[in-house]
UniProtKB/TrEMBL annotation:
PANTHER family per UniProt: LEUCINE-RICH REPEAT-CONTAINING PROTEIN 18-LIKE, PTHR48051
One GO cellular component, as annotated: cytoplasm
Composition-biased stretches (Low complexity): 228-238
Top-level taxon of origin: Eukaryota
Gene assigned in the entry: Lrrc18
Domain Disease resistance R13L4/SHOC-2-like LRR: 68-243
Cytoplasm among keywords: no
Keyword match Hydrolase: no
Record-given protein name: LRC18 protein
Family annotation (PROSITE patterns): LRR
SUPFAM superfamilies attached to this UniProt entry: L domain-like
Region (Disordered): 224-256
Alphabetized UniProt keyword annotations: Leucine-rich repeat, Repeat
Length: 256
C-alpha cells in the first residue's frame, strides 16, 4: 500500500545478495551492492562474510554496524557516496584490508575511529569529500599506505607523520582551505617529491645491485644525449613503403 521507497530504501534479501556476487579480476569474490538505494546495512549479507570485496557505494547508508568485523577476509571495502557520519571502531579488526574508500560522506574528524591506525596492510585510503578539519597524526602508523585522498575537506594542515609515510606515492589534498599560497605550494611540493621518491635507497643495495642500477642509469643518460649522425643513415631493406628517413632514396624505392 504505497510504500515510500525513497525513505525506506530497497530491501536486500539473501537471494539478491548471492546474485550480486561477482568474480573480480584477480579471482576474488566481490559482493557488489552499489547503487541499490540501500538505507540500512543489510543484515543478511553477514551470511556472505567470506567474500574478499564488498561494495556498498552510492547508497544512502548513515551507519555501518560493528558486525562489519565478521568480514575478516575482506581486502577491498568501498563505502563512497553514502551519508555516513561515523565509522565503527570494529573497522580496525579488518586486518587484511588493502583498499578503503570512504570518500563523499559526512565524516568528521571527531568521528574517525582511532582504530583506523590498526589497518596495517592498508595501501589505499580515500577520505576525500568529507567534513574533516584535521587528520589524526595516528594515521602515520599506516606504513604500507601508497595512496591517500584528502581532497575537498576543511583541512588547514597535514601532519608530517602522514606526509612522510615511507611508501606514499600519491597524496591528493586539493580543495582544502590551507592558510596561504605558500603552504599550498609546500603541500603540492611534498606530493611531487613523494611521487618521484625512490623506495629503495642506495645504501640498502648490495654492491652488485647498486652497480647494475648505476649502469642502467648511465645507459639511459647516454641515450638521452645521443644525437643521430647525418653520415650514417639507417637502411630498411624489408620496408614496404618509405618512411621519413627514406625520403631521399625514393628513386631506389621505385626501382625496387
Amino acid at each position: 500500500k504505497g510504500k515510500a521507497k525513497g525513505q525506506k530504501g530497497k530491501k536486500i534479501t539473501l537471494k539478491i545478495a548471492k546474485n550480486s556476487i561477482r568474480i573480480s579480476f584477480d579471482g576474488g569474490r566481490r559482493l557488489d551492492l552499489s547503487k541499490m538505494g540501500i538505507t540500512t546495512f543489510p543484515k543478511c549479507i553477514l551470511k556472505l562474510a567470506d567474500v574478499d570485496e564488498l561494495d556498498l557505494s552510492r547508497n544512502m547508508l548513515k551507519k555501518i554496524p560493528s558486525s562489519i568485523q565478521k568480514f575478516q577476509k575482506l581486502r577491498w571495502l568501498d563505502l563512497h557516496s553514502n551519508q555516513l557520519e561515523e565509522l565503527p571502531q570494529a573497522i580496525g579488526t579488518l586486518q587484511n584490508l588493502f583498499y578503503l574508500n570512504i570518500c563523499n560522506n559526512k565524516l568528521t574528524t571527531k568521528n574517525l575511529p582511532e582504530e583506523l591506525n590498526l589497518l596495517k596492510n592498508l595501501h589505499i585510503l580515500n577520505l576525500g569529500l568529507n567534513c574533516l578539519d584535521s587528520i589524526p597524526t595516528s594515521l602515520g602508523a599506516l606504513k604500507e599506505l601508497t595512496e591517500i585522498g584528502l581532497f575537498d575537506n576543511s583541512l588547514t594542515t597535514i601532519p608530517n607523520s602522514v606526509k612522510k609515510l615511507p611508501k606514499l606515492k600519491k597524496l591528493n589534498a586539493k580543495g582544502n582551505p590551507f592558510p596561504d599560497s605558500t603552504q599550498q605550494e609546500e603541500h603540492a611540493d611534498s606530493i611531487k617529491r613523494i611521487e618521484t621518491l625512490h623506495l629503495v635507497q642506495e645504501k640498502d643495495l648490495c654492491c652488485s645491485c647498486l652497480k647494475m642500477c648505476q649502469d642502467e642509469r648511465d645507459k639511459l643518460n647516454k641515450l638521452k644525449n645521443v644525437t643521430p649522425s647525418p653520415s650514417k643513415k639507417p637502411s630498411f631493406p624489408s620496408l614496404i613503403t618509405p618512411n621519413s628517413t627514406a625520403k631521399d632514396n625514393q628513386e631506389e624505392w621505385r626501382l625496387r
